[in-house]
Specification:
Blueprint (H helix, E strand, L loop, with lengths): L1 E8 L2 E11 L2 E6 L9 E8 L1 E6 L20 H12 L4 H18 L1 E8 L15 H13 L2 E8 L21 H16 L6 E6 L7 H10 L5 E5 L3 H11 L3 H8 L6 E5 L5 H10 L2 E4 L1 H6 L7 H6 L3 E4 L9 H16 L12 H17 L14 E4 L14 H8 L5 E6 L2 E5 L2 E2 L2 H16 L3
Parallel strand pairs: 1-4, 5-6, 6-7, 7-8, 9-10, 10-11, 11-12
Antiparallel strand pairs: 1-2, 2-3, 4-13, 13-14, 14-15, 15-16
Helix pairs in contact: 2-3, 2-14, 12-13
Bound molecules: N-carbamimidoyl-L-glutamic acid and zinc ion.
N-carbamimidoyl-L-glutamic acid (NGQ) binds next to loops.
Length: 452
């Protein structure tokens, strides 16, 4: 039982909320209630967010690519470094890094994650004995840390637009449609032994890493969703696809893919007005990763047009260069202020920017991960985050300003507790397995980087 002085229910604050949780779900929700002995007492309760896009292994190289080399650094030079780095990762390392990442996500207020997983084989491309070896490592890290996992198995067949062959580090990603179907079968088998809220989805990596024919064939076989895909992140990607397929990537997807609520389009950074309107109308969610998009020099998403078109969005930490829910939402809003030279952009009508960002990401994240979360309501998973409104960053604010304070004035240190499907993993601001997970990661970091 959880008792909260204040809880965000149906978009409004309710006082003295008492939640009963059974089998991971909220079964009773009372407001104006009294706390009973044995209740876990918290200050301010919000639905915890879904982190809809992560490549957990990239966390291990955070901070290592911020050094300007001769010439011009870009997304593409970063990607070369990332490919070189991943050549050293063993299954044990992949699991230890994922555990670190999931602990950090839970401590930041994310109760679930969409792990967009494309690292499938050994260095050089030789498969492991089990096709799903590395996927199982991710699942193991998720169940050990208690984060809710939507595992997105990635099809990555080509090194670039127009069926360019895979090369170098990319060989670890390689699958034909045929081998991919074997992989996903093995992943689904593994998921049977995972916690009940584990979901398996599919993810053609991007238009440049697949082909129109394979996409069509794939969707005919595994059409259920969730379906995630990178789209239009970099201008060069837009140009390459246009040269190859004759239209811009989002326009091509609108014309050729059965886009609807099952789909999550990652980045969608570079869209023209027609693409924006069409994608919003399709019902697909855009997966925005503002910290990574800034870090990699992708450019700002056009949030103002997207909201005006009625589009849904969620947030993801993508490269995991920094894992912070409040900073992710803050960066999203600030990217819009810098782009439009305005303030308070990410609200379609009027109201608290923080609350609109937060609730938008809650709904869009739930849709993208196909997870029964995103609101404090009977029948929803108990994905919850408690924050401390007596913290110096919040104590001067009234209730309607608290989420603004969390996102714009505070930091993740105001988080006290996080539950994922009722699993109480963060208490007093710390994940219950933090020490053990950090210890293991330090060992991995040591063995990964001392031989450099
Ligand atoms: C990814 N990163 O999937 O991790 C990509 C780079 C690739 C972003 N799109 C890898 N931000 O393009 O092959
Ligand atoms: Zn990505």
């Amino acid at each position: 039982m959880i008792f909260a002085k204040r809880a965000l229910i149906d978009g409004r604050w309710s006082e003295n909320a008492r939640l009963t949780i059974a089998e991971g779900q909220i079964t009773v929700l009372e407001t104006g209630a009294a706390a009973l002995a044995g209740d876990t007492l918290v200050d301010t309760l919000l639905p915890a967010l879904a982190n809809l896009h992560s490549h957990s292994f990239q966390r291990a190289m955070a901070g290592m690519t911020e050094h300007r080399a001769a010439g011009r650094d870009s997304f593409w030079t970063w990607r070369e470094m990332m490919y070189r780095f991943l050549g050293r990762l063993t299954p044990e390392m992949v699991e230890a890094i994922a555990a670190l990442v999931f602990v950090e996500m839970l401590e930041a207020g994310y109760a679930s994650v969409g792990e967009f997983h494309y690292l499938h084989h050994q260095s050089g491309g030789t498969p492991y004995d089990r096709p799903a070896e590395l996927s199982l490592r991710i699942m193991e890290a998720a169940s050990a840390t208690g984060i809710g996992l939507t595992h997105l198995s990635v099809l990555y067949s080509y090194g670039g637009a127009g069926k360019a062959p895979l090369a170098g580090g990319q060989l670890r990603f390689a699958n034909t449609l045929e081998s991919y179907l074997e992989l996903i079968e093995d992943v689904r088998l593994g998921a049977k032994a995972a916690p009940h809220d584990t979901i398996v989805g599919i993810a053609p990596h991007s238009l440049r890493a697949t082909t129109p024919e394979d996409l069509t064939a794939l969707l005919a076989i595994v059409g259920d969703g969730p379906i995630h895909m990178h789209i239009a992140e970099q201008p060069k990607e837009v140009d390459d696809i246009t040269t190859w397929l004759g239209t811009r990537p989002v326009a091509w997807a609108l014309d050729n893919l059965p886009l609807d609520h099952r789909w999550c389009m990652i980045h969608a950074t570079h869209m023209n007005d027609a693409e924006t309107a069409g994608l919003a109308r399709s019902g697909a969610v855009v997966g925005l990763c503002p910290i990574t998009e800034a870090n990699l020099g992708d450019g700002p998403f056009n949030g103002r047009s997207w909201l005006a078109a009625g589009g849904a969005f969620g947030i993801g930490s993508d490269s995991n260069v920094r894992i912070s829910l409040s900073e992710e939402l803050r960066t999203l809003e600030y990217s819009q202020r810098l782009r439009h030279l305005e303030r308070n952009v990410m609200v379609a009508d009027v109201g608290s920017v923080g609350l609109h960002l937060y609730q938008g990401a809650a709904h869009g994240g739930a849709q993208a991960l196909r997870r029964n979360c995103g609101a404090i309501a009977v029948g929803k998973l108990a994905d919850l985050v408690a924050i401390d409104s007596t913290h110096p960053a919040l104590c001067a604010l009234d209730a309607d300003q608290i989420v603004d304070g969390f996102i714009f004035a505070g930091s993740d240190t105001i988080i006290t507790d996080v539950w994922s499907a009722g699993r109480h993993q963060v208490r007093g601001g710390r994940h219950i397995a933090r020490e053990a997970v950090h210890r293991r990661w330090r060992k991995v970091a040591h063995s990964l980087f001392t031989a450099r």
